[in-house]
Amino acid sequence: MVKRWMAHILFLLFVTGIECIPRKFPSDFKFGVGTSAYQIEGAWTEDHKSESIWEHYIHSNPKVIADGSNADVACDSYHKYEEDVEMLKNLGVDHYRFSISWPRILPNGTANHVNQNGVQYYRNLIKLLKKNKIEPMVTLYHWDLPQVLQEQGGFASEKLVKWFTDYARLCFKLFGKDVKTWITFNEPKQICLFGYGLGVFAPALNKSGELDYLCAYNLLKAHAEAWHIYNNEFRPHQKGRISMVVEFSWHEPLLPDVPAFEEAAISNLEFMAGIYVNPLYRGDWPEIVKAKVAHNSRKEGKDRSRLPEFSTEEINQIKGTCDFLAVNFYTSFLVYPSVTPQPEMYSARDAGVSSYQPWYWEEAKSVWLKVTPWGFKRLLKYLKDTYDNPEIIITENGISDGGELDDDLRISYMQQHLNAILEAIWEYGVNVSGYTVWSLMDSFEWLDGYQSRFGLYHVDFSDPRRQRTMKASARYYKDIIKNRSLDKTSGYLTCSLE
Ligand code: GBH
């Protein structure tokens, strides 16, 4: 709450032309950290867990991972979750975002056989979190589909809706007494575009412009159905909330104020993220996406659009299935209109744009990640304006390096991105209610293996005990959480004369 005396001071400064931003986060702002099952748990065949699409993909193509590694053991959190909770306690976080491994709970994919060992693992973890007053924020799907379901079509099959909703209902029933924040899917873009369009993530299918759209269509229907199940059968007594996590990069027009470039930036935002978020708020794909795919499909001589069409019934079912907007943010791009975007990336071709990151933007260890806090601030304003001022929770934000304990780059990245949130809150009135650092600890970073490290804690992957060590960034974040303020030394306000 902004106190009355603070409002007076702000007003005085406003009329004198001095701009001030409070350094404090709103008193009910929540801080957390995140991980995902496949990236940390290990124990990939233990206690009847079955194979996931990522295990299948990597075991059959070890060369796709930069350092030839895999996540068979990873951080070994299946055995070391008590240590993980100790680390969370030490940081003082309000919430811990983790994911449930579908093949660990349902080894044959479907709900007709529940693996009690798998269930017990999550029960133990959740119980320990509650005991330490850490709120679990649980993702049902962070990319690890049971391989048996992939063999029946995975996200390209309509059956996904039933498979997923049976699994979701089971999780609500098993864990919903203690879990009040649910995420259905993590980053549909990575699931659909990377997995079914570009063929770089499991299941490595590459029918861009068709399978990726079909995947999005089935995924959105599965999400909506799960939301309704929660809303009707569980929310009345469990009283939690549920959403889907979408990764937003910021897309900045290469030439600002030039209409064709402005349109290219919007087009990319809609094709890369709006395509998943617009249905949640309005029931249907963004207009620009529908129009451009239909236009290109006609040009290719097809008699219908490559983009599946939602029926009126589906639109009504999907609309409004979003209790808060869950956003992952890492980086930004400069965008320009182009008739020859990456040839293999249909959605970029449909969008009619290309994008790049200039060499002089500060770099992380991951090639795709450049430091752009200004883009984060613009994105937050855009989300407020586009989706009618929703509550926003940042469900991931972080940076990779080589795993140094004195990780200045991470500290500066966090400082700048938290500052962007403060500015978005106090300058634009964006309703951001929480922030989640990716990640609690170094873990298996998909195609990069263990080469790119995102952790606040270092993990020694050559040590069978997978020793965890606090990095400087962990101490920095711990201080922020304790003070609920970005920089306690600069007091309540930082001011500048405009
Ligand atoms: C998140 O995705 C994931 O949710 C999380 O699991 C992951 O650990 C974290 O980010 C860090 O990557 O290799 O050039 O083809 C963020 C979005 C998706 C961006 C994959 C980079 C790979 C680009 N990322 N993408 S490339």
From TrEMBL:
It comes from the Eukaryota. Its EC number is 3.2.1.21. GO terms for molecular function: beta-glucosidase activity. The active site is at 396 (nucleophile). One of its GO terms (biological process) is carbohydrate metabolic process. Residues 1-20 form the signal peptide. Keywords: Glycoprotein, Glycosidase, Hydrolase, Signal. InterPro entries: GH, GH_1_N_CS, Glyco_hydro_1, Glyco_hydro_1_AS. PANTHER family: GLYCOSYL HYDROLASE, LP05116P. Belongs to the glycosyl hydrolase 1 family. Homodimer. This is beta-glucosidase.
